[in-house]
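Recall that a protein's primary structure is simply its ordered list of amino acids. Everything else, from secondary elements to tertiary packing, is in principle encoded there. The following example makes that idea concrete.
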Amino acid sequence: MGSDVRIRWARRADAHAIGVLALEGLDDTPSSEVDLDDVVNDPRLFGEQLLEGTASILVAEEVDRGLVAGLRFVPREFVRASHAAEIALLVHPEARGRGVGTRLLRDALRVIEQEAHFNKLIMRVAADDVALAAVLGRASSRWVIERNERAALRREGRLIDMHLFALLYPR
């Protein structure tokens, strides 16, 4: 991955591009619990839905391609769990294998460590999603499997376990 990738916070004006990224990458994302049949098929509307509420999205943008990856943070909503945020990473299929996801996740972890008030990050990873588990390991050695959810995901008629990875920030 060259220096032509810029990591930045998503803006409302990015809604259409985020929707396109999600719609094009969602079907080929093993850890996604969402299927294309579950979402609106309008990129602008889907992007707006992803940006609404308390969610924040960091994006990786390539000069010649536009948005190629996104990392979405959703803080837990209840007071007793507000120290934790769930994150989800999506890399466009054409940008996979080039280090974009690892760089985006590393930058996100740096931002969270310096600026956010979270003590814990959680990412759900399908047991057979070797690529995403590897990205977590490359981004930080502090990720641990906190628990397993048996048969938590159904894909192509098969039941897949989900690992809940956690990263703690002692403060």
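The longest strand covers residues 144-155. The mean pLDDT is 92.
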